[in-house]
Structure formats: C-alpha cells, structure tokens
Amino acid sequence: RPRKRFGQHFLVDHQIIERLVRAIAPRPGERLLEIGPGEGVLTRPLLAAGAAVTAVELDRDLASSLADRLGQPPRLDIVQGDILATDVVALAGDQALRVVGNLPYNISTPILFHLFDHLAAIGDMHFMLQKEVIDRLVADPGGREYGRLSVMASFFCEMNWLFDVPPEAFRPPPKVVSAIVRLRPKSLSEAELQVLPALDAVVRQAFGQRRKTLRNSLRGLLDSPSIEAAGVDPGTRPERLSLQEFLQLALTTR
Ligand code: SAM
User: Fold this and answer.
1) Is the CB of 79 under 6 A from ligand 1?
2) For position 95, what pLDDT does the model report?
3) What is the predicted pLDDT for the residue at 121?
4) What angle do CA 177, 179, 181 make, to 5 degrees?
C-alpha cells in the first residue's frame, strides 16, 4: 500500500522504466546512488546492467524488504534513512556516484539543493520529477518559471529535459505530469566556488520579493550605485537577470 506522506508513486509502465534505464545507460563497475528505490522497479535493471547500487530508502518496510524482493542480489547496498540527512560525499568513496531516482515530489526541490551541496562526489544525475519542477530547472530569464532554482541549478549543472511521463505510468497516478531530467555537474573553478555564498545570498534576497525591483529587494545587501557598478539596472526585476548578471552582483557585494 503506497504511503502518501512518503510521496510514494510507484512506476508500473515497463516501457517508461526501460526508456529511463536506457537514458541512464549504467555500466559494469559504476556505482549508482538510487534515491527512494521503493519496490525496486528501477533498482533491478540497474543491477542487471552490472552496476553497483546504493539505495537510500526512508520507508522502513520497503527498505527491509527490498533485498528479498530482488532476490538478494550482489552489488546492492541498502541504507534505510532520509536522503536529506545523508552525506553523499561519504557514500561515494573514491568513485564518482551517478545519482538516479523517481523522487518523492513533496521534497524534490530540497533534494536537488542537498545534492548541489555534494556535487564534488557526483558524476551525473537522472531524475523523474514533476514536469513543473523541470520547467523551473531549465527556465531561461524572463518567464514566470525562472527563479532561485533555475539560477542556482544553472550555476552548478548543465541540464537536459529528456522526456515527459504521463500520470498513468504510476500507481497511484500523481495529479501532475512528470518528466525525466539529466543534470551534469559543471567543473567549477576555485574562484567560482568562492563566489557561491555571495551568489546564494543575492539570489535568495532578490527572489524573496520577486515582484520588487532590485533597488528595493536588495536593500541592505547592495545599494543602487553598487548594482549599477555591477552593470545591472537597479530598476529591473530579478526574473530578467541572467546567471552572469547575478554573478556580477555577487562579486560586487564583497
Ligand atoms: N523508485 C520507486 C519507483 O519508481 O517505483 C519509488 C518512487 S516513489 C515516487 C519515491 C520513493 O522515495 C518512495 O519509495 C519513498 O518511500 C521514498 N522516499 C520518500 N522520502 C524519502 C527520503 N527523504 N529519503 C529517501 N527516500 C525517500
């Protein structure tokens, strides 16, 4: 019986599962981190491809039955716990992890930000998400979908929407359309990493009041002359700014 509070919507469409596994293209010798394996419909073909899988599952019943359900396979580690409290770098060891999952939608954005904090250990990521979240991830400046998630995700990763998945592919069906996204961490320079705390502060504050002009929303952080010195119009709104412009503002706060 799927548990709503754990965001449980199990994939039942085998064509979608195959398509997702083909997009991931797991290879022997690789280590995958699967978030929320549930009943193991993805775990099974990932293991069959010869990859090793560390599966983090919050639901005690599902975590304790998974190995039996899959026939006690080799190369499977099951961790019962909350991915948001999991140190992904510690899990990785010396090999980059490939992260995959049909994510619990109620916490998909916190999971993405948690993983952005652990990118040093991550090779790439493939996720099933609400299509609406993927639209925000890959949004360009100017539209309603563009926000803190878009700016920070594009700072950290290259992203590709791969394909949409209809509600009928799940049991029970979610209320929204889903989609698959691929994220590849960019290799960030030391200088780029150093600007991250300032970037985070500027982006949070700007989108905290997204209907205000930067002159107003960035009050206390940057005054109008400083915003202008960064090459940005203080009369503009945050959804118009590119990542490069946010980076210029972040550099100006120091
Ligand atoms: N992978 C399975 C599938 O595709 O059928 C299940 C996907 S279901 C959308 C999300 C899974 O994440 C559930 O098994 C749920 O118990 C688990 N989950 C929910 N919150 C979690 C958390 N904080 N950490 C780890 N797993 C979690």
Assistant:
1) no
2) 87
3) 94
4) 155
Whether residue 214 contacts residue 195, with contact meaning beta carbons closer than 8 Å, is answered with: no
Which residue's CA is the closest to the ligand 1 atom numbered 3? 10
pLDDT, tens digit, for every residue of 58-85? 999 999 999 999 999 999 999 999 999 9
Round to whole Å and give the CA distance between 138 and 140: 7
Q: Distance, CA 111 to ligand 1 centroid (Å)? A: 12
- Using the predicted structure, report yes or no on whether residue 5 has a pLDDT greater than 90: no
**And the tokens for 101?**
């999952």
**Interface confidence: ipTM more than 0.85:** yes
> How many CB atoms neighbour CB 140 within 10 A?
10
DSSP string, 140-206: PTTSTT-SHHHHHHHHHEEEEEEEEE-GGGEESPPSS-EEEEEEEE----HHHHHHHHHHHHHHHHH
pTM: 0.96
CA atoms of 36 and 102, how far apart (whole Å): 7
Is the Cβ atom of 129 under 6 angstroms away from ligand 1? no
Given a cut of 80, whether residue 254 has pLDDT beyond it is: no
User: Looking at ligand 1, which residue's alpha carbon is closest to its atom 10?
Assistant: 104
